[in-house]
Amino acid sequence: MKIHEVTALLEQQGTWVRRNVKTRDHLLFGDDQQEVRGIGICWVASKGAILEAVKQRVNFIITHENPFYQCSTQMHTAALKAAEEKKRILKEHGISVYRCHDVWDCIKEYGVADQWAFRLGFTFEERFVSSYYQAASIPEMTAEALAHHVAEALRQDGELGVYMFGNPQKKIHRIAIGCGAATNLYELLEFYPDAVIVSDDGINNYDAAQYAIDQHIPMIVVNHAGCEIAGCKAMVPWLRKHLHSSSICYLEEGYTIHYYTTGS
């Protein structure tokens, strides 16, 4: 099996992706005519993930995020040098890298959006296949209890906490979530939530947090990687099923955040 056969299989699933206009899903490094020896999946092909691929004799990495830092011809010099070091390792070991983002964010059941909802454990309303957003009515709990619930859901994927803006004692009956960096607060408002769950890369403090505080909407913030890794891990069994191959593994990228508090 060649790499282009695997990427074609993935791209066929994304009927909502406007590939003729714009997509993030491309071969970023290597040769799509290369024979696949082993496939490694990761949220981002960090240097650690690449070295793990070398150890596992993986020659095709599927990464959700861009492993080369900045999509620009005007990169910071330090980032450019670090990207070149990654590419040197990839070339030395004959490893190709494909980014699968737009398809895997929204693919039903196994993708990032639905796996994040499954991790949270609530019954969410039907999501449009091309949408990053969904909502659920939940048993009444305080915003603080909801934050603890979310933190516990993240634990199995290596995340150890969340933080929150707003009143911890507000009673919550309805929530809205996005996935990854697609957590635009103003779009989540269309679901009339009592609280929202967003990612650190999907909001900012001077706008979204300020609005949430002013409008008394508790906003629970999780790490971008933390709410997407479950979906990336689910690509492993999906590919094993569709490719009838066991030579597929998950590559740990080292994105655990360590939280330090005053203990108050």
Automatic annotation (TrEMBL):
Q: Which residues bind a divalent metal cation 2?
A: 64
Q: Name one GO cellular component term.
A: cytoplasm
- Pfam families the record matches: DUF34_NIF3
- List the keywords (alphabetical): Metal-binding
A GO molecular-function descriptor: metal ion binding
Which residues are noted in the entry as a divalent metal cation 1-binding?
A: 105, 224, 228
The record, for InterPro entries, names:
DUF34/NIF3, DUF34/NIF3_sf
Q: Which family does it belong to?
A: Belongs to the GTP cyclohydrolase I type 2/NIF3 family.
State the name under which the record lists this protein: GTP cyclohydrolase 1 type 2 homolog
Species lineage: Bacteria, Bacillati, Bacillota, Clostridia, Eubacteriales
